[in-house]
UniProtKB/TrEMBL annotation, chain A:
Protein name per its UniProtKB record: MIF4G domain-containing protein
UniProt entry keywords in alphabetical sequence: Cytoplasm, Nucleus, Translation regulation
Xref: Gene3D superfamilies: 1.25.40.180
Subunit text: Interacts with eif4g1, eif4g2 and slbp; probably tethered by SLBP to the 3'-end of mRNAs ending with the histone stem-loop, it also interacts with eif4g1 which is bound to their 5'-end.
InterPro entries listed in its UniProt record: ARM-type_fold, MIF4G-like_typ-3, mRNA_TranslReg/HistoneTransl
TrEMBL record, chain B:
Stretches assigned to the Histone RNA hairpin-binding protein RNA-binding domain: 160-229
BP-aspect Gene Ontology terms: mRNA 3'-end processing by stem-loop binding and cleavage; mRNA transport
GO cellular component: cytoplasm; histone pre-mRNA 3'end processing complex
InterPro entries, per database record: SLBP1/SLBP2 (IPR026502), SLBP_RNA_bind (IPR029344), SLBP_RNA_bind_sf (IPR038294)
Pfam families membership: SLBP_RNA_bind (PF15247)
Signal peptide as annotated in the record: 1-28
Source species: Phoxinus phoxinus (Eurasian minnow)
Gene3D superfamilies: Histone RNA hairpin-binding protein RNA-binding domain
Basic and acidic residues biased stretches: 42-51, 63-83, 131-158
Taxonomic classification: Eukaryota, Metazoa, Chordata, Craniata, Vertebrata
Protein name per its UniProtKB record: Histone RNA hairpin-binding protein RNA-binding domain-containing protein
Sequence similarity: Belongs to the SLBP family.
Length: 222, 293
């Protein structure tokens, strides 16, 4: 049990003391400094790409545990406010380190995916998430395979939810992606492939047809 | 083919411009779309929508004043991007919700209230018939009868204004977020609670005047103070929220301590609190009925 939950939340990359803190936060959130927990998680997310893609899960569990224990939301509040600060500084972050920027986007999107308010996505996060994706769809980002990869991954994961929350913005974003696919001159063939796939993915109602699935993935496995 | 490509290029420029605008320069958006409106009808439609959205958004920041406005904002939230979140750096409109934590909390509150309302509607539908039967058979207490008839009249006429409901829910939450409330629900099981004797959370879905509602909340909070922790733990009480109800809160804090000779000007609140201590509900009931009718 202990091991499996550790596996699930991918907290092995933390130092031992922090792992202990996180485990306590999961079990008994009232007994730890939840502000510290939230900042530990955000810090790690910005460094660790693997973690940033799954950090929403541990956050979700802590939010649930805290709500159940004391009907509180200290953790969520601190997490979101810290995230907002990082979001505000996104342009500087991007200039400083593409990797950190990509981690930030993964993390925000993952939080959007996992944390729900009465089973509905958080409306407050819709605009910032779109902002990040629009940024990744700009021509200077499309040149960078790492950013294209991130963009496409996020759309695979939360594209349909985002579209339901705001269809016109998704239309706008996909116009950018079509333009990028068609007109971006220094787009690598891998980048082009990723864009083509996501265009098909949305066109198919956020799923790939069997033939498309084969086309995009069988070569890789064969 | 040539026209198509040219069209795409224009589209590209257009969307880029749009994006720039979205990123903050919302003022220049209007100028740009005006300049370009002669050439691309389709694209301009979205521009118009966006402009409309922006102005509607700024109106809607006066939330809470009036129900229809709030609804308009609701729709807009789903389809339009509230600029305030995306352009914290710009001089554009700034929402009164300052951070994501608060925003999500407010969101949660609205969604809770909506969910409660569905439940309440379902419940009054289901309860309607059996309750009438009970009313015929029991007839033991006058107040219960009047309560019932009130229920049936209120049925078609419940409070649906989300702003009002959220405000009321906040007041209720303040009351429930007290040590006294925790002690009360632990010490007195739901079935043992008697009308008029024990505090009963006001029903936020009934139509009441603002004054009546505030008074009900006040009386409820006064009654709850009977379950305040003993004097030794009084510091803890200070943790409870003194926000909106500060003045009366202070009165009662004095009265809750039997030792203190509090020269409170507000003798009414004092005696009310003492009444509830000794379990003499008569005065409370009178007050309540007067308020409710």
């Amino acid at each position: 049990m202990e091991n499996s939950s550790k596996e699930d939340y991918k907290i092995q990359s933390f130092d031992l003391e922090t792992q202990k803190l996180l485990k306590t936060a999961l079990k008994d959130p009232g007994s730890v400094d939840l502000e510290k927990v939230s900042s530990v998680i955000v810090d790690q997310s910005l460094k660790d790409q693997i973690f940033s893609r799954e950090a929403g899960r541990i956050c979700h569990t802590i939010v649930q545990a805290e709500a159940k224990q004391s009907n509180g939301n200290v953790f969520r509040r601190n997490l979101l406010n810290r995230l907002q600060l990082e979001f505000k500084a996104r342009e500087e972050t991007r200039k400083r380190s593409t990797q950190e920027w990509v981690c930030l986007v993964s993390f925000i999107c993952n939080i959007f995916d996992y944390l729900k308010v009465n089973n509905m996505p958080m409306v407050a996060l819709v605009p910032p998430v779109y902002d990040c994706l629009f940024r990744l769809a700009q021509s200077d980002s499309l040149k960078n395979e790492e950013e294209v990869d991130c963009l496409v991954l996020q759309l695979h994961r939360i594209g349909d939810q985002l579209e339901k929350m705001n269809t016109p913005l998704m239309d706008e974003l996909f116009n950018l992606l079509r333009d990028g696919f068609l007109l971006q001159e220094d787009l690598s063939s891998m980048g082009r492939l990723l864009l083509l796939e996501i265009l098909e993915f949305r066109a198919g109602g956020w799923t790939l047809s069997d033939t498309a699935q084969k086309y995009y993935y069988s070569e890789v496995t064969d | 083919m040539l026209t198509y490509t040219a069209g795409r290029w224009r589209g590209l420029i257009q969307t880029r411009l749009l994006f720039v605008c979205v990123c903050g320069v919302s003022l220049s958006l209007e100028e740009m779309s005006e300049q370009q409106s002669y050439s691309y009808e389709n694209d301009c439609k979205s521009d118009e929508n966006r402009n409309k959205g922006a102005s509607r958004w700024s109106q809607c920041r006066k939330r809470g004043a009036d129900g229809s406005l709030r609804k308009a904002e609701e729709d807009q939230r789903c389809s339009r991007r509230p600029e305030s979140f995306t352009t914290p750096e710009s001089d554009g409109p700034v929402s009164r919700v300052k951070n994501w934590g608060d925003a999500v909390e407010a969101e949660e509150m609205r969604s809770d209230v909506r969910r409660d309302m569905h439940r309440y509607r379902r419940r009054i539908l289901a309860v309607d018939v059996p309750q009438r039967d009970r009313k015929l058979s029991s007839g033991s207490s006058d107040s219960r009868d009047s309560q019932n008839s009130k229920d049936s009249t209120a049925k078609g006429d419940i409070e649906t204004d989300e702003a009002v409901l959220v405000r009321r829910q906040k007041q209720i939450n303040y009351g429930k977020n007290t040590l006294a409330y925790d002690r009360y629900i632990k010490e007195v099981p739901k079935l043992m609670r008697e009308q008029g004797v024990h505090p009963k959370t006001p029903n936020k879905f009934k139509k009441y005047s603002r004054r009546s509602w505030d008074q009900q909340i006040k009386l409820w909070r006064v009654k709850l103070h009977a379950w305040d922790p003993p004097a030794g733990d009084l510091q803890q009480i200070e943790e409870i929220d003194l926000g909106e109800i500060m003045d009366f809160e202070l009165d009662v804090e004095c009265s809750a301590d039997p030792e203190s000779q509090c020269p409170s000007a507000n003798a009414a609140a004092l005696s009310l609190a003492e009444d509830s201590f000794r379990g003499t509900p008569k005065k409370m009931m009178k007050m309540e009925d007067a308020e409710m009718s």
